[in-house]
Amino acid sequence: MMALMLSKETGTTTSIPIRGSAEPKAETGPRREPGTGPEGGPLATRTWTTRLLVVGIVLAALNLRPAITSLGALLEEVRDGLGMSGAVAGLLTSVPPLCFAVFGVMAPRLARRFGPAAVVCAGMAAITAGLVLRPYAGTTAGFLAASALALMGIAVSNVLMPVIVKRWFPDRVGSMTGLYSMALALGTSVAAAATVPMTDALGGRWQTGLAVWAALAAVAVLPWIPFVRGREAVSAESDPAAGPGRDEPDGPRITRSGTAWALAVFFGLQATAAYITMGWMPQIFRDAGVPAGTAGVLLAVTMVMGVPLAFVIPRLATRLPHQGPIVAALGVCGLAGYAGLYWAPERGAWAWALLLGISNCAFPLALTLVGMRARTGAGVARLSAFAQSAGYLLSIPGPLLVGILYQRSGGWGLPLALMAALMVPQVVAGVLAGRNRTVEDEAAR
Fold first, then answer.
1. How many CB atoms are located within 10 Å of the residue 11 CB?
2. Residues 228 and 121 sit within 8 Å (Cβ to Cβ)
3. For residues 177 and 315, what is the distance between their CA atoms, to the nearest angstrom?
4. Structural contact between residues 397 and 305, judged by C-beta atoms closer than 8 angstroms
5. Each residue of 285-301: pLDDT tens digit?
6. Whole-number Å distance between alpha carbons of 79 and 74
7. CA 190 – CA 128 distance, rounded (Å)
8. Helices 413-433 and 397-409 sit at what angle, rounded to 10 degrees?
9. Which residues are CB-neighbours of 165 under 8 A, at least 6 positions away?
10. 75-82 vs 86-104: helix crossing angle, rounded to 10
11. What's the per-residue H, E or C state across the chain?
């Protein structure tokens, strides 16, 4: 159904590159049609492969955040069980952006060698293994190591999702970005809302409540297997996932682009806000007197706002010449949500959760900008790796600093002031990244 919906949008049929027994025929014209294989030859239309790829994208997106939000819902129980201090718990909430920065930069190189589908498939397998292992590691170090394994799989999939969309759905970047952003938000919110009730239903042990999400990740491995089987490495010149270490003629030098730097800063600051929210918002509500189950539902409300908006915002963004107004509107919602958490965290809890949920939709907007600010597949791959790796690197201190401020001050006044202060440069960077230009043109100049 999803594939049919996307086909109706453009009135075109997109072919998915798969290996077959027959050699592809030569192109009849110089123009490369959307949906052709990475080597440039036209491939037979296979509706089932299109649908399978869409299912794979959706299932992969569903698994890109439960490892984080399920932990946020049970953070207090994990801290007690492993004997963590507030500072160590802050370090734990900083592990996701650290892993995304370190492992995300490897994604284009891995995709060039093994193919994007193979890397995403391996990423889903790594998420499965990490989620199975970490609750039973027994020590804080083991918990962090297993979490890093799962987050490594998330990191490479994060980077390659825009590449896969640009490569196989070049005429539907907005729709497909919206679709997987919506699935990502759905997985995030469901994990936040369901982890505590499932933990209670499965015996009350936080280990079981965290491990159960490995089942969803295991299912996500399956749709990618047909796209991996028989997949050979392709050359950097023909593969849009070519990494930043090569100097292809069509590959821009990202560091020469002011838009790329602005997008990296925007990505990093919105990631800072998102991971502080996912890691600490339930604790903010619990400290204000909200029950643990309700605090998890409030986080789910924040995350679920991304389900409809993650589909609407990318489509709207692709129709505007400048995305700055969207950035500003999301920033205002964030500032209002932080102010509410400071002045009336319990009385207005549902309103603040809604406002912060709207503000967190800067993430699908950032992903859309990655596809819009580059013309070529190689440009998208480099921009995605640079913006996400540099951005996540920038976001590492935020959750850790919040944990330290919370422990030192004994309250949430200073952490909330920090979050509100960071929203201002996020808006400025987002407005700069939203200007109608491409990294290829800026790098050439």
1. 6
2. yes
3. 9
4. no
5. 989 999 887 887 898 78
6. 9
7. 17
8. 160
9. 57, 172, 173, 176, 177, 180, 371
10. 110
11. CHHHHHHHHHCCCCCCCCCCCCCCCCCCCCCCCCCCCCCCCCCCCCHHHHHHHHHHHHHHHHCCCHHHHHHHHCHHHHHHHHCCCHHHHHHHHHHHHHHHHHHHCCHHHHHHHHCHHHHHHHHHHHHHHHHHHHHHCCCHHHHHHHHHHHHHHHHHHHHHHHHHHHHHCCCCHHHHHHHHHHHHHHHHHHHHHHHHHHHHHCCCCHHHHHHCCHHHHHHHHHHHHHHHCCCCCCCCCCCCCCCCCCCCCCCCCHHHCHHHHHHHHHHHHHHHHHHHHHHHHHHHHHHCCCCHHHHHHHHHHHHHCHHHHHHHHHHHHCCCCCCHHHHHHHHHHHHHHHHHHHHCCCCCHHHHHHHHHHHCCHHHHHHHHHHHCCCCHHHHHHHHHHHHHHHHHHHCHHHHHHHHHHHHHCCCHHHHHHHHHHHHHHHHHHHHHCCCCCHHHHHHC
* Whether 188 contacts 27, CB under 8 Å: no
Q: Alpha-carbon distance 435 to 412, whole Å?
A: 36
* Closest-CA residue to 385 (of 178, 112, 75): 112
- For the segment 321-376, what is each residue's pLDDT rounded down to a tens digit? 899 999 999 999 999 999 999 999 999 999 999 999 999 999 889 988 988 888 87
Q: Which helix (H) or strand (E) holds 329?
A: helix 324-343
pTM: 0.70
Any idea which architecture 50-229+248-444 has in CATH? Up-down Bundle (1.20)
Give dist(CA 312, CA 306) in Å, integer: 9
Degrees, nearest 5: CA angle 201-207-211: 85
Paired tokens of 374: 């580059």
Stated length of the chain: 445
Structural tokens at position 351? 């309103």
Among candidate residues 154, 111, 177, the one with its CA nearest the CA of residue 310: 177
